[in-house]
Amino acid sequence: MSVLITGIGELTTNSEVTGDALVIDGAEIAWVGNVGDAPAADERVDVEGRAVLPGWVDSHTHLVFAGDRTAEFGARMAGKPYTAGGIAVTVNATRAATDEELAAVVRKHIAEALRQGTTFIETKTGYGLNVADEVRSARIAAEEADEVTFLGAHLVPPGEDADTYVDLVRGEMLDAVAPLVRWADVFCEKGAFDYDQSKAVLQAAAAKGLGLRVHGNQLGEGPGVRLAVELGAASVDHCTYLSAADIDALASSDTVATLLPACDLSTRQSLPPARALLDAGATVALASNCNPGSSYTSSMAFCVTTAVLQMRMSVEEAVWAATAGGAQALRRTDVGVIRPGARADLHVLDAPSITHLAYRPGVPLTHSVWRQGERTN
Ligand code: NIG
């Protein structure tokens, strides 16, 4: 089944191809160009001057959870600071939930994201924090999401000894989870895991063939970025508090700086230094960090709008970061881009240009979405 899409008012491809029309064939993009040169297709859809871009690539979410942290959010808005300790509340609720309840939460949020144009999504374990619950979180995530990350090193479970827990994570837990995931991550931050503990977990994961990611520099400057660059991690996520040396290190590495502005707003932190990273030459991605504690949104458009209005990114930089940047953070070349051979993941805006994402903040602009060649809304 092939579909010719015509009438594209503005086409953002993140690639060398340009035009005002494209053809989807099955799950892939088959052709991009000007409508006068278009090949025949089974069906034709006229998007009547709307902007078309790749579907959002959300490279950082925590969707395998149960429970609710509205009260914690309310306390924060009344002035209480965010600490990593709230994670333990979600861990207790997650352990008490059934497999079906957890799967339903993951499905619900992925569907919510898809309705807003997110066509590729990563999610993590990290609210199980024992072998059985990390394994089932990974299994459920793998059934629902595009990419899965093992985050056994999210928090030392309250009452447990940190070094004993690190040994469990890099030993029995990693052995059990590794076959289900592509990535391993650690929360390298004061109150979570220090440099040595984080490095031990990541090195064990790398020895198992997993790609590496790091949560770092979220609540203050620290060793997260340095560790991520040192170990060649695909991405270091948060990057809210960066030293000049962190920015230089990122700029001269392949490690993507994944910025999570919805999280910084929701935890009343500063916004990350996007302009300094871009000006230094670092690769920047934007992601939602959808989770029940620090960032309960699946809206990539909100992240893009914030990046433009408050982080001094141009609309083009922000859209790239939320599509091709997310793909690069996940080391994918088949998504976040429109070109022949890429996944047919398309986001049509009810607007003539991507500029409207910032020009019309808060307005739901998703008109229609194709994911792997299938129109979903
Ligand atoms: O990315 N930083 C650590 N992990 C999550 C927070 C999870 C939570 O508060 O439940 C984050 O913000």
UniProtKB/TrEMBL annotation:
Annotated residues for binding of N-formimidoyl-L-glutamate: Y127, N291, G293
Reactions that this protein is recorded to catalyse: 4-imidazolone-5-propanoate + H2O = N-formimidoyl-L-glutamate
Domain of life: Bacteria
Presence of keyword Zinc: yes
Binding site for Zn(2+): H60, H62, H215, N289
Domain spans labelled Amidohydrolase-related: 52-358
HAMAP family cross-referenced by the UniProt entry: HutI
Protein known as: Imidazolonepropionase
Biological source species: Lentzea albidocapillata
Lineage: Bacteria, Bacillati, Actinomycetota, Actinomycetes, Pseudonocardiales
Gene: hutI
